[in-house]
Each structure stands twice: as C-alpha cells, then as structure tokens.
From TrEMBL:
Keywords: Cell membrane, Membrane, Transmembrane, Transmembrane helix, Zinc. GO terms for cellular component: plasma membrane. The chain crosses the membrane at residues 12-32, 39-59, 71-94, 255-277, 283-300. It comes from the Eukaryota. This is Zinc transporter ZIP11. Its main location: membrane.
Length: 310
C-alpha cells in the first residue's frame, strides 16, 4: 500500500496484503501442532474489534458524509446508507444459506480439501473405481479439545434434514460413491463457494481505496487501516483451516495450500470494488455501506462466535 498511486492499484496492493496474511496464518501449520488453538481465539477476538472499528471509520462514516454532502437526499440522507448496509448483510446471509447447496456446510476450503483427498485416496486404492463423493451428508473436520488435536469426522445433516450423527474417527475410505464427473462438479461448486465466502472482504478493501478523497473522512489512512484490520482477521482464518486438515492426516504442504486458498479471490474482488466506485461515483454511498454491512455481519455472525466455541 503505497500512497500516491491510483485507487485501483492501491486496492490491488491492499488485497494482496490480506491474501498474504491468510497465507502467513496458514504457514504456521509448519510450526504449531493441531492442539494449539488458544492463539486463534485471541487473534479472532482482536480482529473482531479492529474490523468493527474499521467498518465504521473507513466505510460507514464516509458513506454518511457523502450522502449528506451530495444534497440529493435532503432529510433522507440516511437512506442510501441504510439500504447499502442492509444489502451487504443480506448478501453474506444469503451466501451462508447457499453454502450447503454448494457442498460446504462450514469452511468451503476444508470441504474442498476433503473432496480432493478422498478422491485421491480412492484412486490410489482402486484406480478403476468411481471417485468418492459425499452426496447424502456433509463432512467436516473438527478438533477434539480433550485429545491432542485428534481429527474426527462428524456427519452433518444435509438439506433433507437428516439428524446429526455421532463423532467417529475419520475413515480412509468411504462407502458412498458417485461417478467421477459428479465429483468434479462438486469440486467446482466448492471453488465457487470459496469465492462467494471471501468476496465481501476483498470488496470492502477495494471500495475503501476507491473512495479515497471523495470525502474528507475517506482517506488513504482509513483505507489502509481497513486493509490491516481484514489482514489481521485473515491471519487466524488461514490457520483455522490448515490446522484441522493437518490433524486429519493431510501433508503439511497440502494443509498450507488449502489454508491460504481463501485469500486468492480477494484481489479480484478488491479491484472490482475499486473500479466500480471510480467509474460510477453516485453508487459510492451504497457501495461503502454495502461493504460495511457485510463486514459487520461477518464479525457478529462468524468471527466472534468462532473465537468463543473452543
């Protein structure tokens, strides 16, 4: 993030930073054991506070100021901010509802890794057999707090409303099979799920940099602080994915790869957000409030509960 460059280039640098923080967090899988989870709790709690503050000072405050100074809304200057904020929160909420249908009940990176890992294990043990798939129940990895990071598989009810099953050790092979074409379709859907899941963060950084100098409160420093706050949140997010995968038996490098995967889509979303507000300035109050709504929803619904469940 270098001052004096174009908004789009700044957004690209900012989102590369957030991606790098995701990768840095995932890289800790080379150092920590899967039982060391307190680091995540503290980091997530700190990141939640930083992101809430940045959501207001870097996104909501400029949106309110711009809507007021434009004069087009008069006494209803709050309207574009309220609409954008509501749409941002609704976008993330609907994305969460969509996750199970894309094959990712919890972390889409973890679900994608499990799909690839199961397919590879099936091919090694039975090259001509069909690839593994999990069509009737979602599989997710959790860390057992009383055992030293031992990985378990928990069946989660799918859209059909099946009851949750007991926790059992992860088997190396499953007893459900589907054609390999369906497996690759599922993997493609999981990649789409990862993209949807991480677009709001990149979009917020892009909109923040795109709004620089549009109002007095939309400054380079506020946009930079927003990117730093999201980067701090991404650091434990990468580790939260890579550690369970390592405990599930994945190699360290493969666990690292899936841990950093979520950050890869953020530069694309950031550049899109910056382009949108630069080319269509009238939508800026809505865009800033949209990004703020998405960020606040992520903090309240995802980050804070995640920091307290362990």
């Amino acid at each position: 993030m270098l001052q004096g460059h174009s908004s789009v280039f700044q957004a690209l640098l900012g989102t590369f930073f957030t991606w790098g923080m995701t990768a840095a967090g995932a890289a800790l899988v080379f150092v920590f054991s899967s039982g060391q989870r307190r680091i995540l709790d503290g980091s997530l709690g700190f990141a939640a506070g930083v992101m809430l503050a940045a959501s207001y000072w870097s996104l909501l405050a400029p949106a309110v100021e711009m809507a007021t100074s434009s004069g087009g809304f008069g006494a209803f200057a709050f309207f574009p901010v309220a609409v954008g904020f509501t749409l941002g929160a609704a976008f993330v909420y609907l994305a969460d509802l969509l996750m199970p249908y894309l094959g990712a009940a919890e972390d889409p990176q973890t679900a994608l890794a499990l799909n690839f890992g199961a397919t590879l294990m099936k091919k090694k043990s039975d090259p001509e057999g069909p690839a593994l798939l999990f069509p009737e129940s979602e599989l997710s990895i959790r860390i057992d707090k009383s055992e030293n990071g031992e990985a378990y598989q928990r069946k989660k009810a799918a859209a059909t409303g099946l009851p949750e099953g007991p926790a059992v050790p992860v088997p190396s092979r499953g007893n459900l099979a589907q054609p390999s074409g369906s497996s690759w379709r599922r993997i493609a859907l999981l990649i789409l799920a990862i993209t949807i899941h991480n677009v709001p963060e990149g979009l917020a950084v892009g909109v923040g940099f795109g709004a620089i100098e549009k109002t007095a409160s939309a400054t380079f420093e506020s946009a930079r602080n927003l990117a730093i706050g999201i980067g701090i949140q991404n650091f434990p997010e990468g580790l939260a994915v890579s550690l369970p995968l390592r405990g599930a038996g994945f190699s360290t490098w493969r666990a690292f790869w899936y841990g950093q995967l979520s950050g890869m889509v953020e530069p694309l979303a950031g550049v899109f957000g910056a382009f949108a507000v630069v080319l269509a300035e009238p939508i800026l109050p809505y865009a800033l409030a949209f990004a703020a709504g998405a960020m606040v929803y992520v903090v309240m619904d995802d980050i804070i509960p995640e920091a307290q469940i362990r």
